[in-house]
Amino acid sequence: MRYVKVLQADSLQDGEKIKVTPGDKALLVTRVQGAYYAIDNRCPHMGGSLYDGRLEGDTVLCPKHGTAFNVRTGKVTRNGRIAFISLKVSDVKAYPVKIENGDLLVGLD
Ligand code: FES
Question: Is the pLDDT confidence value at 109 over 90?
């Protein structure tokens, strides 16, 4: 696995998120209770940018239709809705992270 530096770890405070674009990817990086997580930024439903959604604890909400994703695992924890219709949305990919010399690195394929 190839690890790529995406930011200086201490530039992200607890409860914050940032969008990073290593290579051809767009990732949402979050810091929750002192730990860092990286998932794909693009909602699989209709491409909502998760960075533009609300971060609540370890959950980020898609700004388009409200699907909730766990930032630790990328798994959907609550389906969004359009009007009264509950959506079936796929999970997003979660990436391994590590800190080296104060830098946050994300493991890409
Ligand atoms: S685009 Fe994310 S739930 Fe529809």
Answer: no
Of residues 97, 100, 102, the one with CA closest to residue 74: 97
Specify the pTM.
0.96
| CATH superfamily, with its number, for domain 2-94 | Rieske [2Fe-2S] iron-sulphur domain (2.102.10.10)
CA 62 to ligand 1 center in whole angstroms: 6
- Give the domain ranges of the chain: 2-94
The two structure tokens encoding residue 38: 């990286």
Interval 57-89: pLDDT, tens: 999 999 999 999 999 999 999 999 999 999 999
Q: How do strand 76-78 and strand 68-70 relate by DSSP bridges? A: antiparallel
Q: Enumerate residues lining ligand 1, CB below 6 A.
A: 43, 45-48, 62, 64-65, 67, 80, 87, 89
- Which ligand 1 atom lies nearest to the CA of residue 50? 2
